[in-house]
Amino acid sequence: MSAPEVVVHAGPELLAAAVAARLVTRLVDVQAAKGSASLVLTGGGTGIAILKQLRDSPARDAIDWSRLDLYWGDERFVPADDDERNEKQAREALLDHVPVDPARVHAMAASDGPFGDDPDAAAADYARVLAQRAQPEDHGNVPTFDVTLLGLGGEGHTASVFPESPAVYETERPVVPVRNCPKPPPTRVSLTLPAIRRSAEVWLVTTGEAKADAVALALAGAGEVQIPVAGARGRRRTLWLLDRAAAGKLSKVYQPPVG
Ligand SMILES: O=C1O[C@H](COP(=O)(O)O)[C@@H](O)[C@H](O)[C@H]1O
Question: Glucosamine/galactosamine-6-phosphate isomerase domain: from which residue to which, for each copy (predicted)?
Answer without folding.
Answer: 13-240
